[in-house]
């Protein structure tokens, strides 16, 4: 059997490299936690929008035969997605976030996410509906969503539960399932001030 021996200087260099990687990883983790805390503090301060992609729902788009009033024809939340939505709602409550309004796409995966958050009455809102299958609706719905946000009182936190395509059209960001973009309305525009990856 051949035994490989590492020369002491090489071993020291590898140990130093490993230590530096661990330090860099810990620094990145601290930075992510600080950004996470800042985003929650912004929501707690009021006057912000929590723009959320629905929780985990395996697949893409909707099956053929989709019917808006029949969840059996749609792509729905998985058990993990349902637990994710409940946990996100709990994080809002732990941080005493005052939610003044919860609006959702009429798709079942969004309505279920919004209900499972447990943050208040959910208002089904067509401007938040997916336009994944009908991209011709993108400009109109994005404009309607902007108008809805502009008409909002600005008190507390406005929670909007929608789809990736809607969020990307409004902000240019491609969010993960359950991710929240924290937006601040500024002079008729929206400023992205934080991201909460759940």
Description:
A six-stranded mixed beta sheet has the order 3-2-4-1-5-6. The radius of gyration is 21 Å and the shape is globular. Helix 2 runs parallel beside helix 3. The protein is an alpha/beta fold and 198 residues long. The chain contains five helices and six strands. It has a single domain (32-196), classed as Rossmann fold. It has helices at residues 8-45, 79-94, 108-117, 138-151, 164-171; strands at 48-53, 99-104, 122-124, 157-162, 180-186, 189-196.
For this entry, give a set of tags:
six-stranded mixed β-sheet; 18% strand; Rossmann fold; globular; 198 residues; alpha/beta
Concise synopsis of the structure shown:
This protein is of the alpha/beta class.
Number of helices in the DSSP assignment: 5
Number of strands: 6
The SSE order reads HEHEHEHEHEE
How many strands, what sense, and barrel or not for the largest sheet?
6 strands, mixed
CATH level-4 homologous superfamily: Phosphoglycerate mutase-like
Question: Radius of gyration, Cα only, in angstroms?
Answer: 21 Å
Q: Decide which structural class fits the backbone.
A: alpha/beta
Helicity level, as a percent range? 40-55%
CATH architecture: 3-Layer(aba) Sandwich
Distance between the termini: 50 Å
- What order do the strands of the largest sheet run in, or round the barrel if closed? 3-2-4-1-5-6
At the third CATH level, what is the topology name? Rossmann fold
